[in-house]
Specification:
mainly alpha, membrane
């Protein structure tokens, strides 16, 4: 299945959003970097899968709790409680994307150098798919 330009741009924007969030955390929970990263991540997902599918995904009955945590975390970051905001966002992210986590780890295992690191760490053997 080929990836079109819209999906590529969306994944690039979402990836930059994740980078901004990680950079914001490393800069002692810088509120502006965290807020910018949050907006870029959500916008990137919406661009990559389309607005209708994004709305259906985030407001699906099984994903509402994760969406509430994610949005609540963004609001906490914006009202200058970045530590609690990042914790809430992390919980929401895990709740929303928990079915994709094994696929992500499987992808990491197939990378040339990273796969060796993952197979060398005993604790990760329990987490990774067989």
């Amino acid at each position: 299945m080929a990836v079109n330009e819209r999906e590529q741009v969306g994944m690039m924007v979402a990836g930059m959003g994740i980078f901004y969030v990680l950079f914001g955390v490393s800069m002692m929970f810088d509120r502006s970097l965290l807020a910018c990263g949050n907006l870029m991540f959500v916008a990137g997902i919406a661009i990559a899968i389309g607005p209708r599918k994004a709305t259906e995904f985030f407001f699906n009955k099984s994903n509402v709790k994760g969406t509430i945590f994610l949005v609540g975390g963004v609001i906490l970051v914006l009202v200058q409680w970045p530590l609690f905001g990042i914790l809430a966002e992390s919980i929401g992210f895990i709740m929303l994307f928990r079915s994709l986590i094994p696929i992500f780890f499987e992808l990491l295992q197939k990378l040339p150098y990273v796969g060796r690191i993952f197979s060398a760490i005993p604790m990760l053997r329990f987490i990774l798919p067989k």
